[in-house]
Amino acid sequence: MKKPVIRLMAFSLIVIVIAAFSWQWWQSQQTLLPADIATGNGRIEADQIDITTKYAGRVKHILVQEGDLVTLDQVLANMDTTELDAQLAQTQAQVLQTRAAVVESSVLIAQRESELTLAELEFKRVAALVKTGAISQSLADQKQTIKATAIAVYNAAKAHVNTLEQSVLVAQAEVKRVQTQIDEAVLKSPAMGRVLYRLAQPNEVLGSGGKVLTIINLGDIYMEVFLPSAQAYLTPIGAQARVKLDILDIAIPAQVSFVSPESQFTPKQVETQSERDKLMFRVKLRIPQALVLNHIEQVKTGVRGVAYIRLSATKGKQASAWPVFLQKLPDDINPAEQSSQ
Fold first, then answer.
1. Distance CA 189, CA 217 (A)
2. The pTM of the whole model exceeds 0.90
3. Is the alpha carbon torsion for 97, 103, 105, 111 positive or negative?
4. Residue 277 DSSP code
5. How far is it, in rounded angstroms, from Cα 239 to Cα 296?
6. Model confidence pLDDT, tens digit, residues 60-109
7. From the CB of residue 282, how many other CB atoms can be counted at a distance below 10 Å?
8. Residues 287/254, Cβ–Cβ less than 8 Å
9. Which sign does the torsion angle of CA 254, 255, 257, 263 carry?
């Protein structure tokens, strides 16, 4: 009874070993990359945006919670504008008051103009009579003085109207300034994103530039990897790429949107070939916006994975096909798009 059991155990062990070696060989064949595909580790990232106050004030309402998805121009919070509303009413009243003063002064100009016309007529009559000797020169001098005074009063009235008109413009500018402050008290989202931190509470007083919220900009999802100089040189802007996340069994299409012109963690003095081979360049891969929108609820930053980048093909050679494990794409990408990825 013992020999058959031992034989069975030995046979089972041999099968397991063969299966393990077969699996490792199959995996190595699956992950074997062509020479024109570069790879690098990274994680899904998105820029953080701070929602801040432009002017000092008290927080009135915060309309979102941490984790909420927000859209472009969505109202996120309101600052208290009670004092600004009073200033706005005051400046608007000043505009109306100054405009009324302009109308009143315009009527006064018409009156001064009539007085000037009368003074000029009387002076002409007196001047004619002086030549005939009918009246004295002193009376003519009096009329001339009255005429000069009327001219001065008329010009002063016109200048006063001009001053009032400029005051209207100043008051209107003040209304616009206060209204701008009121508009700035409404804090809106500058991009589609998700609320990461809620940094203030209602009724809290913040200074100018005080942080109310922090959101993650989901309008620009990307992964950054580092490639050696030889591969970075062959990586053009717009190059096709695939991102394989640890948590997914599909590949995510992407494009190279940036290749750093400067190497990272470079020694100050690079002398040898081996040192030059260690130079690494930062490469940014952008996930298509349409794909992000289709899976917006599943988008999570910080998830780690591996990026695969198609390098420029050698002259006279065709680009290699993507390995089998990178050919399975999201279901919402149509065949035409898959062939171009």
1. 10
2. no
3. negative
4. H
5. 24
6. 999 999 999 999 999 999 999 999 999 999 999 999 988 888 888 777 77
7. 17
8. yes
9. positive
